[in-house]
Design goal:
about 650 residues, alpha+beta, eight-stranded antiparallel sheet, about 40% helix, about 20% strand
Length: about 650
């Protein structure tokens, strides 16, 4: 591709200041070398999106970040790598429930009064939102919430038609337009920028649809500039080296942008490279059983939601890409339905929060039910429609007809999701609805287990929608002692050998050694379920140890038996750990028997009298007895630790009777 050929193309695209870009291209040889050295992902990125037939790819990727900043500053409102020909509104924003409206208006008023709530529940001043110093470095999601606030304000205006929401919305958007240059004081990181881009497209679509009514060209132009800056940044900073959800976030946000444009041959052709990378990543990151490769129900839920968003927009734009996405989305939908808890919450395996800024578990169930006519999902879901759901629904009548169906109890069958290593043992009788999920899979995504925990053969137990034994969750992604605790073996309902972790932790998101899990046997019928599995996480001890565990569920007697076998040759300290849900109470009724209650649910836990039993609650030395269902949360819980010493092979059994 010669400079002359690029100049010809640039002249045909009036939205680009071609003389300025051409001048940069003449001296680009030096900057290209600097850019490659500075950005370790550049060479990989270059291989992905180099296309000799498309001058835009050449220009965009030969100009480094520093040059692009200068171009943006010098040509504000003139330079754009994309001819924006008008956005398409996808779906209808229908907010049918009064409680949704009340919630949105309440939060809208808080924003108008100058106070905004971050995802972790903290409030800061709106004027401090864009200042890095006002937000702790671990609260990076705060920088994606700008777009969430804009979304709240546009919805508050749609409900009330009160102009004051638009005034504040305009101030926020215009301020960000003034400071949204790459490299300035805003927090620019590709994943968070992708999140902002998704939210901003929602806001922009609403503004476009009501453009005549709003009569505010400044907002329209400002948000256009922000969108271009965001998509340009994401395209030039694809997180190829992460090999996890980050890259997929980047790709989906870019494709949502292109699908929002008026479709033509140029747009379709230019977006094709991103579709190819996305499909390649989906083949790598969606397992055969439908699970997301990071093995976190939380990240599965988020990626499932984002893929549905992309599928819906592709379908409404009459793009054949919707059919390309459908098999992947269907697999993820089924996996989510299979593992969801009876209380419509997700199990907190690996790095998982109970809810996300994108959707709740119930939102996703409703979306799966409404968008894909999935009756199982609708029967599991509650009749609570949120803004996250309503944006995908074509009309209010469709919404009501779909969710007013007979809410008979649907529970599903026990299932082993072998590829993701998730075993759900479920049964329902006249007295009890019992749910157990067992982690019998790898620590996480094999290429980058950043969100994995050392939790092989751990489990959660729920009876009649009341949690009994829980995963401890995760409180954040920093390098603190709590981060290490929540990722470690002691924070999970499994066996700890010699006070070591099964998988050796390294930094905040890495492991040096993984536990390998092997499933030996699985069986399920109307009377009983059982699974036998083992792991070799302690193979690196001086005397290697294999831990084998059997879960046996007797559906007729309402009993669960957990049998642990330790295969070793020498002496080892053994701890069997059980973490109780926050509302659980525990009482020793006799030697070898504990009574555990949560509201109207009670169980008896029978254990070997030779065990030494310690009960911890919110301890800091040693760090144990904590629960976190969201970022920066720390809730004291009761943790049972049964200790013994093994000499060679031992077998220990603990039984749980539902009473």
């Amino acid at each position: 591709m010669t400079a002359k050929e690029i100049l010809v193309w640039l002249r045909e695209n009036k939205s680009i200041n071609y003389k300025l870009v051409y001048a940069y291209y003449k001296t680009i040889g030096i900057f290209r070398i600097v850019y490659f050295i500075k950005n370790r992902t550049s060479i990989k990125l270059y291989k992905y999106i180099w296309n000799k037939k498309d001058p835009r790819a050449v220009v965009k990727n030969l100009i480094g970040n520093k040059l692009r900043i200068l171009v943006n500053k010098l040509t504000l409102g003139k330079i754009s790598y994309f001819p924006i020909m008008g956005m398409k509104q996808f779906g209808e924003t229908i907010i049918a429930e009064s409680e949704i409206s009340d919630s949105i208006i309440k939060e809208g008023k808080e924003i108008i009064n100058g106070s905004v709530k971050l995802e972790n529940g903290k409030r800061i001043l709106l004027s401090d939102l864009n200042k890095c110093s006002s937000v702790n470095k671990n609260e990076t999601l705060a920088f994606s919430t700008f777009s969430s606030f804009s979304r709240i304000l546009i919805n508050a205006w749609l409900i009330t038609k009160d102009k004051k929401y638009i005034v504040v919305l305009g101030n926020i958007i215009n301020e960000w337009a003034d400071h949204s240059y790459i490299g300035e004081f805003l927090k620019w990181q590709p994943t968070m920028t992708s999140v902002r881009l998704e939210n901003l497209l929602y806001v922009f679509n609403a503004i476009t649809k009501h453009k005549e009514e709003l009569k505010d060209e400044l907002i329209y132009k400002s948000i256009t500039n922000i969108l271009v800056n965001h998509v340009t940044y994401v395209e030039n900073n694809l997180e190829i080296d992460h090999a996890n959800n980050h890259l997929v976030f980047n790709l989906i946000s870019i494709l949502l942008f292109y699908l929002s444009l008026d479709q033509n041959t140029t747009i379709t052709k230019y977006s094709e490279k991103y579709w190819k990378i996305l499909i390649k990543e989906l083949n790598l990151q969606i397992l055969a059983d439908g699970g997301w490769a990071e093995l976190s129900p939380y990240y599965h839920m988020i990626m499932n939601y984002w893929l549905i968003s992309l599928y819906v927009l592709a379908k409404e734009q009459h793009s054949n890409k919707s059919e390309l996405l459908l098999p992947y989305v269907n697999k993820m939908n089924l996996w989510f339905i299979n593992i969801i808890r009876p209380d419509n919450e997700i199990p907190l395996l690996n790095d998982s929060y109970a809810i996300s800024q994108f959707c709740t578990p119930n939102d996703l169930l409703l979306l799966i039910g409404l968008v894909f006519n999935n009756n199982e999902a609708l029967l599991l879901a509650k009749n609570t429609i949120t803004e996250k759901v309503s944006q995908f629904v074509i009309s209010d009548s469709v919404l009501k007809s779909k969710t007013s169906s007979d809410k008979r109890i649907f529970y599903g069958d026990s299932i082993l999701l072998r590829d993701s290593g998730r075993c759900c043992l479920k049964y329902l009788n006249k007295r009890y609805q019992v749910y157990t999920i067992i982690d019998c899979g790898p620590v996480g995504y094999s290429k980058n287990p950043a969100h994995g925990h050392a939790d092989a053969l751990s489990f959660e137990l729920m009876v009649n929608k009341k949690a009994i034994f829980i995963d401890s969750g995760v409180s954040g992604y920093d390098s603190s002692d709590f981060r290490n605790y929540f990722r470690g073996t002691l924070a999970h309902n499994t066996v700890v050998v010699d006070d070591k972790d099964q998988s050796i932790l390294y930094k905040a998101t890495k492991f040096k050694n993984f536990a390998n899990v092997q499933i030996h046997e699985y069986y399920s019928d109307k009377d009983k379920d059982y699974i036998i599995a083992s792991h070799d996480g302690y193979k690196n001890l001086e005397d290697p140890v294999i831990h084998e565990r059997t879960y046996y569920v007797d559906k007729l007697k309402n009993e669960i038996t957990i049998t642990d076998i330790i295969l070793a040759k020498s002496k080892h300290d053994i701890k069997i750990v059980f973490h109780l849900a926050p509302l659980c109470q525990v009482k020793k009724i006799e030697n070898g028997v504990l009574l555990i209650t949560n509201a109207d649910v009670s169980i008896e836990l029978h254990y070997n009298k030779n065990f030494e039993l310690n009960i911890y609650r919110g301890n800091k030395k040693p760090l144990i007895g904590w629960y976190a269902s969201k970022e920066a949360e720390l809730i004291p819980i009761s943790t049972l630790v049964f200790s013994t010493t093994s000499y060679g092979k031992i077998q220990k059994t603990i039984s749980i009777k539902i009473i």
